[in-house]
Amino acid sequence: MVKVLENQSIPSWSGFHSILFRDIPRADNIGYCPLIERSSTVFSTIYTVLKHAQAIRAIVGQTDTDITFDLASYIKAKQLQWRFLAEFSKVIIRVGGFHIALNYL
Fold first, then answer.
1. pTM over 0.85
2. Is it the case that residue 22 has pLDDT exceeding 80?
């Protein structure tokens, strides 16, 4: 039987970190990604997505851009990254977990 702590002053793990590390900024922004009304497997669309991801990275203040694609888009995104190596040198392109599992199976 698990004993319930009724007078717990710190609400679990995230609360522990919010009390311990007060100086870390916690900015949350939940919303929809911009919609691009074009085919998702065209090079120009994938290029636009990569540029949008880089713009978001710059606003947030991260050093790298990490973006996940489905398998068909991943192949074209990698080709764009290789073609424009200097422009997308800080971009990490990944295949989605669903496609990795399908390839494994």
1. no
2. no
